[in-house]
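Thread: Newbie trying to understand structure tokens

Hi all, I'm a second-year student working on a class project, and my supervisor (Dr. K.) asked me to get a predicted structure for one chain before our next meeting. I've only ever worked with sequences, so writing a 3D structure as a token string is new to me. If someone could post the tokens and maybe explain what I'm looking at, I'd be very grateful. Here's the chain:
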Amino acid sequence: MADVVVTSRRGALEPWWHAYDDHDRARAADALERVGAAHLAHRLFGTLSSGERQRVQLARTLAADPELLLLDEPSAGLDLGGREDLVARLGGLAADPDTAPIVLVTHHVEEVPPGFTHALVLRRRGRGPGPHRRGAHRPGPRRGLRAPGAPRGRPRPLAGLGRALRRLT
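---
Reply by user tm_fold:
Sure, no problem. This is what the structure looks like when written as tokens:
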């Protein structure tokens, strides 16, 4: 497992593509420790559960020392216990000042960990795959965004997105 994490330093898929030193291996071990997966360091990736794999992949991402963590539905495919564990670990990472800013994409509000300070809620009503009521070529008026707590009324597309992105930088 440590090999899976250490290869992130150079973006490799196999550990034999590059030479890794003690510093790289120490960073990998630290990343595994940060996500609660240090005990998995000597196991094969294929023998891990979905939750354990997700933690190792998160450690791999952290070991690369990213400037921004972009997590797209990280709890997809996890059982309830694995999802709760991952949300708690992400909350711990969000509270750690050494962790890069985290952008989390999810369809489930309950998966937003404590410690996340901003949210962008997107909502589309009455739209699904296939032709729209007004026909495939004229989809009708666009639905915009409404910040939580904002007054109802005519939505403005992407209202507040610029402010949210400026806060991240």
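A couple of things are worth pointing out once you decode it. Helices lie at 2-6, 22-34, 50-63, 80-95, 161-168. The chain has five helices and two strands. Feel free to ask follow-ups in this thread.
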